Amino acid sequence: MKCTFTFSIISVYETLKYFGLLTSIWPIFSKNRYLWVFMKAVYYFILVNYLCVFIPLILMTLFNINTSATVTITAVEQMIIVEAVYNLLYSRFYSDQFKSVVKEIEEFFKNSSPKERYILDRYATTRTFFNIYIAINYFVAIMSFNFGQLFLKDRPYPLNLWYPFTIKSQVIVVIIYIHQVIVITHTLILIVFDLIVQIFLWTLAARFELLQADFKKTASEMDLKCNIQKHQYLIRTTEAVIDFTKYMILKVFLAVTILVISSTLQILHRGPSTIIVQFFFIMKIASMRAFAYCWAGHSLAEKTGGLARSIYNSYWINQTQRMKTNVLIVMQRCQKPTVVKISGIISSLSFRFCVNYFYMIYSAFMTLRAVLEVADPLETLEYLRALSRIWTIWPVDSKASWKTKVYHECSIWIIITNLFITWLTLWISVCDSYKYPVIMANNLATLMIATDSCSHLIFYRIHRSDLSITAASAFFCGALILNKRFPINERYPFSIKSSLAFSIIYAHQIFSIIQNSTIIMIDFLVITLCWYAGARFNILGYKMKLVENKYKTKTIY
């Protein structure tokens, strides 16, 4: 059943305004002197709190510079504090631009028609669900930092700090603990400022979509002139918003780079489970923040670039020569979409930039990890062998007991049968969806995964000494979020009404999908074996360089 719950753009905007005032980043329009003094006091109180945490973090890094685990932990915490301080200072240094953008947005909301409000609410609904998911993850991360030290014996406080004085009094311990909890909770400023910037970009994208509808209805020179004036005004407004937000966007991507790399290194360090949970959520939130910005920028670029097509579809063919000329000029202007960009750094904030960005930071992470630590070859091989045995892909030893061999043989045929059932129902779904190219492409992609898994498992059954490669899959959570009954788009030749049948089919699909995930590990195993073979040839070459006489040559061979 499709979700019909919607968000009002006004309610979303007012909520952000409330949290913006709470975190002292929203511009103050009131002329009340007492309110202004109070907000100033709150602003400086928050700023001093951040500085009182940032200095001990620096000291902790300096005194543990040779410990990679401590350095990555403090790097993440420092980056969060620096980002929060940057947001506070940015909201003050660019307060005039902030106020002008807020005034323009509020004026548009106030004078918007029901049709415009409908488009704005649609944008608010589609984007707010994703940002609520980010906020939930951020809340879990805050709780894990505030109360995670209850499960860590060597860490009495939420943050990894070093104070230049001894802490023996219980009162001081409580004060420091409460102070750190307040600072961590107030880092909500990061999400609030992100949403403020994004709602500006969403609103502009919605206004360009409304302008597209107006251009399609153009029937006279007066309508065209009015729409051209709207277009020019929107371009000026968009440039003002981009000029205000571009350094904030640049800061976000720099911070996300440090947070993702440091958090991933900390996760792979194999520390306490509490630390792993904390930094997993930090990495997840940082990645989603970057994607949310790219989504907003892509929507804006898409709507501004689509104006030319809307103008072309208007009633201008049989109009006057002057109107035709004006239409062609406007169409030529619309060939250059208004995009969020920073010269030399971000060419265009879009999905393409998002993909390139994540490719870059994860490449940097792999390089940094190779510099910081060297993996033990035997440990890596044992890890891959253990995972292979779980899914009965690793060959059974000839000296193994008959029970082990029977279990291995039965497991293989159960898995093959299970994947074959999935493959058959997927093939029926592909045949039934030939009229819908998008659904058919989705079904074909899933069918290829199932086909690959079936063929390689059967190939392994025939050639036990060979190992195969299939693709990993993570569809089983998608049905919980998307408007889908099951993780895989399968067509069954019978109706499914019983809850028991529904549960059995759902569990069967989950098992099939998880089985496909084993093949990433097989890929790693094959690549590792190739690396080891190359390394052994390098060792042989090194020994050959040390040969001094024919007797040593015989020893090598």
Automatic annotation (TrEMBL):
Gene Ontology biological process terms from the UniProt entry: signal transduction
Subcellular localization, as worded in the UniProt entry: Cell membrane
A Pfam family that the UniProt record links to this protein: 7tm_6
Main location: membrane
Protein topology in the membrane: Multi-pass membrane protein
Keyword terms, alphabetized: Cell membrane, Membrane, Olfaction, Receptor, Sensory transduction, Transducer, Transmembrane, Transmembrane helix
GO CC field: plasma membrane
InterPro entries: 7tm6_olfct_rcpt
Record has Cell membrane as a keyword: yes
Listed PANTHER family: ODORANT RECEPTOR, ODORANT RECEPTOR 19A-RELATED
Name of protein: Odorant receptor
Biological source species: Trichomalopsis sarcophagae
